[in-house]
Amino acid sequence: MEPVFTLSYSEFSAAQQLSRLFPATKGYSLYVPLSRQEKGVDLILARRVRGRTHTAAIQVKSSRTYSLRGLRRAAQPRIHDTFFNRFDAPKLADFVLLVAVFPSDVARSSREMASWWSTLVLVFSTEEMRAFIRSVKTVGGKPDGKFGFGFDEPVSVIQTRGDQHRRYLDFSGHTLANRARHIREFLTRKDPSR
Q: Whose CA, among 82, 133, 139, 154, lies 20 to 30 Å from 174?
């Protein structure tokens, strides 16, 4: 009997999005640790630069996506909402990806799409994630056990839970498309020993 290795759908979906932005034709490689006991590392993105391999360890966290169709209000202009459980940012990860899979109206209306499902991926460095988690509070100022983001399509993303002052902060700059350059720079950084 052959052993079977499985990957959660959120990790697979994140890997799929990463491989589109960081293709092998540009020198990138994507790896999955074989040990599921590897705390804080779900994916490894690598790039060979000047004879050295640079890597980024990635932790993937996922959320269910809730439809707000019919419940839209002017103060919360969005169709989809997510709820992530509060977590400690992993020490071994360089980046944390927050992933939400949702039914896309664009995909549903296009016969060219292979699936009706789309993926929202938000990217944080581990330091950014730690600072964000520290800021996740209830209206009363206590640590909130959950945080969330709302969006229609994954272009404009706002924080919907976890902000003590309920300001609906814009996190669109954290989408994978917007943070790809940051990851590229991380993978091409100069080796300090040179």
A: 139
Taking CB atoms within 8 Å and a gap of at least 24, the contacts of 125-134 are 125/94, 125/95, 125/96, 125/182, 126/59, 126/89, 126/90, 126/91, 126/93, 126/94, 126/95, 126/96, 129/89, 129/96, 130/89, 133/86, 133/87, 133/88, 133/89
pLDDT digits (tens, 9 = 90+) for 105-160: 644 455 544 556 788 999 999 999 999 999 999 999 999 999 999 988 777 899 99
- In the chain, where the domains are located: 9-187
pLDDT for 52-108, tens place per residue?
Answer: 889 999 999 998 888 776 555 545 557 788 999 999 988 899 999 999 988 766 444
DSSP classification of residue 25: G
Beta bridge partners of 65: 82
Calculate the alpha carbon distances from 126 to 32, 52, 91, 131 in Å. Answer: 19, 23, 8, 9
Computed on alpha carbons and rounded to an integer, the radius of gyration of the chain in Å comes to 18
The DSSP output letter for 191 is P
Per-residue pLDDT, 107 = 47
Q: Which residue type does 159 have?
A: Q
